[in-house]
Every structure is written in C-alpha cells, then in structure tokens.
Amino acid sequence: MAFEGLSDRLQQSIQKIKGKGKVSEQDVKEMSREVRLALLEADVNFKVVKDFVKKIRERAVGQEVMGSLTPGQQVIKIVKEELTYLMGEEESKIAVAKRPPTVIMMVGLQGAGKTTTTGKLANLLRKSYNRKPLLAAADIYRPAAIQQLETLGRQLDMPVHSQGTEADPVDIAKQAVEQAKEEHHDYVIIDTAGRLHVDGELMGELQRIKEAVVPDEIFLVVDAMTGQDAVNVAESFDDQLDITGVLLTKLDGDTRGGAALSIKAVTGKPIKFAGMGEKLDQLEPFHPERMASRILG
Ligand code: GDP
C-alpha cells in the first residue's frame, strides 16, 4: 500500500507531542527533526522538505490551549494542514470548454500508464460527469499503442479516432477534434506518444499538437513509483508544455510517496487524479485533505 512507511514514520514523529498539555520549543524541534527524516526517507524533494519543516516550526512554537484542542493536538493539526497544502489544498476540477468539445491532451513517458489512464479518464468522465468522450490515438510510434487504445474503446463501448501509424500525429489530433464536433462529443482525449526519456523531438511534436488543437487541459501522466524521477519529469514537461495538471499512476503500489508530496510544490501544478490499479474504474479524484488524513492516521 502506498505511503505505508511514510505514514508509520510520521505517526511515530507526532506521537510524543500528541498528548502534551504544553509544547516547548524543544518538543517542536524534536518532532520536526523526525518529520524531516520521515519525509526524506519517503523520497520527498529535499527543498520541499526544508520549507515544510520550517513552516511547521514557525507555526507550532508557542501553541497555547485554545478551544477544545490541547497544544499537542494543535501542533498535529498544523502538520496536517501543511501536508494538505503541500499536496494542493482543494480537490481539482476538470476544465469545461465554453464551446464543446473540451480537448484534453495526455502526455508522459512510455510506461507511465498514459494509454490506460486515457481509457480510465474517459470512463470516469462518462460515469461521474455524464460526458460523451471521443478518444484519439496519436501515439503512432509505440507499435501496440493504437491497438491498446482501440481495445480500451471496445471495452468501454466508446469510439476511437485512429488513422493507423502512417498519419501525422498533428493531423490525427486535429481531425479527432473535427470528428468530435460533427458527432457531438463533448470531450476529446488525445493519447500522445511517449518516449523512455524526455527528448527534444518528442517535445517538438507535443508542442505542435498543442498549437494545432489548443487543448483545454494538458495532463501529464506520471508513475508514482519512480519517486524523484517523477518530479524531474514533471518539471521538464511543464517547462516545455505548460501542463495544467498531473495524473499520478500506480498509487496502489508500494510507492514511498515522495512524488505525490513534491510535484505540486516543485511545479505549482496540481495532482488531479490518482490511478489505484490497472482496471478501468481505478482512477480517483485526488483529494489532498483525505490523503493527508490517511497518512497521519
Ligand atoms: P503508456 O506507455 O504510458 O501508455 O503505459 P500503459 O498505459 O501501457 O501502462 C503501462 C503499464 O502500467 C500497464 O501494464 C498498465 O496496466 C499499468 N498501469 C497503469 N496505471 C496503473 C495504476 O494506476 N496501477 C497499476 N498497478 N498499474 C497501472
């Protein structure tokens, strides 16, 4: 289960302070030292950890009994608030274009879960928001990507715009949007190509698609299991494409959680959804507050 280690460590860190009727500066110092180690062990970005601990210290020192909370409980409340803030505060919404269709461009490295997540997102849009998406297969390089999306389309009973592997991805994306207009789809989700690493050629193609269809959302799909790498990937995609949100996959695995806790702080872009398994219904809106509560127990 994701965050297990982090959750255990953080709960231990706050355990001592929990029952305190009076919190000294020394107590806060001890607690924040342990919180710092817990976060670093969970692979949270170094600078993010530094800022986080500093904020907690500033806010936690000198807590007095207020209302029904003891000073110890108040300190824990502060940790929870800051953890929530770190992950993005409120639940993120999905854009709705003024004039349909809303265009969503899915980007990310190969293996991150882009194609699967394209299917999951389409499923969620239909189930939870009553939308009628069209999928577009613009990953012409990975041999099985188009077939994979077509299979997902059949499973979901949803149309897929595809032109095989010979067409230009920019044309595929543009014509998918045209098809959506003609057939009254309110969303188009474009599955684009990925590579094993960030490279200039890939970014160039993604930028051309972006210019051609002017997407309402550019969602970066990142694998939570890749830790710090996920954060670096998010930074470079954001630099080049100005992404609008992150979809974090494989949060059902035993990820240490560093990516989930660093991406918002490092890129300023929110995590919008989290993949919790391979099945098509295993994509959930990312709720920072619920996640913080889960982590702190
Ligand atoms: P792409 O190359 O980015 O398009 O990646 P795929 O969509 O083909 O996914 C790569 C692998 O990750 C597949 O085996 C997926 O089933 C798996 N995968 C995707 N999302 C999740 C997730 O949230 N949890 C788990 N456990 N596996 C996932």
TrEMBL record:
Reactions it catalyzes: GTP + H2O = GDP + phosphate + H(+)
EC number(s) reported in the record: 3.6.5.4
UniProt keyword terms in alphabetical order: Cytoplasm, GTP-binding, Hydrolase, Nucleotide-binding, Ribonucleoprotein, RNA-binding, Signal recognition particle
Location(s), subcellular: Cytoplasm
Protein origin, superkingdom: Bacteria
Record's keyword annotation contains Magnesium: no
Transmembrane spans: none
Binding site for GTP: 108-115, 191-195, 249-252
The SRP54-type proteins GTP-binding domain, residue ranges: 270-283
Entry annotated with the keyword Iron: no
UniProt subunit comment: Part of the signal recognition particle protein translocation system, which is composed of SRP and FtsY.
Domain notes: Composed of three domains: the N-terminal N domain, which is responsible for interactions with the ribosome, the central G domain, which binds GTP, and the C-terminal M domain, which binds the RNA and the signal sequence of the RNC.
Described function: Involved in targeting and insertion of nascent membrane proteins into the cytoplasmic membrane. Binds to the hydrophobic signal sequence of the ribosome-nascent chain (RNC) as it emerges from the ribosomes. The SRP-RNC complex is then targeted to the cytoplasmic membrane where it interacts with the SRP receptor FtsY.
Family: Belongs to the GTP-binding SRP family. SRP54 subfamily.
Name recorded for this polypeptide: Signal recognition particle protein
Covered range of the whole protein: 1 to 297 of 446
